[in-house]
Amino acid sequence: MTVTVIGGGLAGCEAARALSRQGISVRLCEMKPARYTPAHSYPGLGELVCSNSLKAARIGSAGGMLKEELRILGSLIIEAADHTAVPAGGALAVDREEFSDYITAKIKADPNITLVEGEVTTLPDGPVVVATGPLTTEALSEAIARLIGEDYLSFYDAAAPIITADSIDYTKVFAAARYGRGEDDYLNCPLDKQPYLDLVEALRTAERAPVHGVDAQTPLKVYEGCMPVEVLAARGVDTLRYGPLKPMGLINPVDGRRPYAVVQLRRENREGSLYNLVGFQTNLRFGEQKRVFSMIPGLERAEFVRYGVMHRNTFMNSPRLLEPTFRLKGGRPLYFAGQLTGVEGYVESSMSGLIAGLNIGRELRGRPPFLPGPLTMSGALCRYISDPDIKNFQPMGASMGLLPPLEEKERDRQRRYQLLAERGLKNLKEQLATDI
What we know:
Layout: E1 2-6, H1 10-20, E2 25-30, E3 53-56, H2 62-72, H3 76-83, E4 85-86, E5 91-94, H4 96-109, E6 113-117, E7 128-130, H5 138-148, E8 153-158, E9 162-164, E10 174-175, E11 186-191, H6 193-205, H7 229-235, E12 261-267, E13 274-277, H8 286-293, E14 304-306, E15 310-315, H9 318-321, E16 334-336, H10 346-364, H11 377-385, H12 413-435
Parallel strand pairs: 1-2, 1-7, 2-6, 7-16
Antiparallel strand pairs: 3-5, 4-5, 8-15, 9-13, 9-14, 10-11, 11-12, 12-13
Helix pairs in contact: 1-10, 2-10, 2-12, 3-4, 6-7
């Protein structure tokens, strides 16, 4: 029996690897390099199209807890991230191209996986995992819509620009990690009050680019976790200063004071030759990006190797359609994975692919499904996206709020999160000892 996995992103590669580890043959279909979506440009598998950060690394955080669970479950994506990590303070960030190359090499070297290049426009017969991501092509989207009999929900998100390191004015920036977590992995561009206010006004009034397929009268539903910086600026003068430009935990060594606001730059690759503007996802026209972002201290002569873009993301009404194992309710073995299911984030998408691949393999082998327990972050997310009581479904990333509370109350939040993570990881290890 061969399983077809459609999509060579994080979820698809994770599903293919999970199937291969069960000795099951896989056809992994990826339309690149014959065709690219508006957000993709690199020919390799597992391309990261927005940030190069997989978010917090520490176990006592929602993202860190989920990463550790995936390490325990044998995740290819976390393995690749650990091997291609770049300094990023308390976050796990990667060299974007090395990360993709690592995943591509592992997939191509796997004797159970056959990589098939070219666009898939219909759902093939037999067992299938659909992991085509939030930019699923129109033809395949229509095929899925005909099958599920449900309208998709959609929103738009944006990517931040990337600049060259040698175009930064280092006399105006300082290196530091927020709250001293990690080494001095970020470059910080400090702003006094008036330059900050000028930047906010420029963002608020700058000309935005049209979004493909949307007319001026169509209201855009934009995902809160990836909100364009100009939209945040329009919400209020202090919104950015309490959001991505917050100065908390940073001291400017020049004057020993906390800046009024700070724009952070994070390494984009291992060599440190490229940096991205943290939190500056945008849909401004390219010329406007150059003009406005050059107002940031240290970036007056910044050289942009990639401007920010906005693109459409599409996801299913999963609580009405999917089991917690990511299986489509009823019918043949047909599983969905990745952001198409409403999980939000790189690591969350990887988790969904791993769980989908593991379970379609178990189904074909006549074994009962595997679902991480509710004390785990992965199990909590699986249950959230399939909860039929949710009426207004929106994408969800890892959050400590998804977990059942501790039996004994702990007032200190950091300590509480650490205990929740330790409890969940212990639960997963105990489950694996008897369940797989």
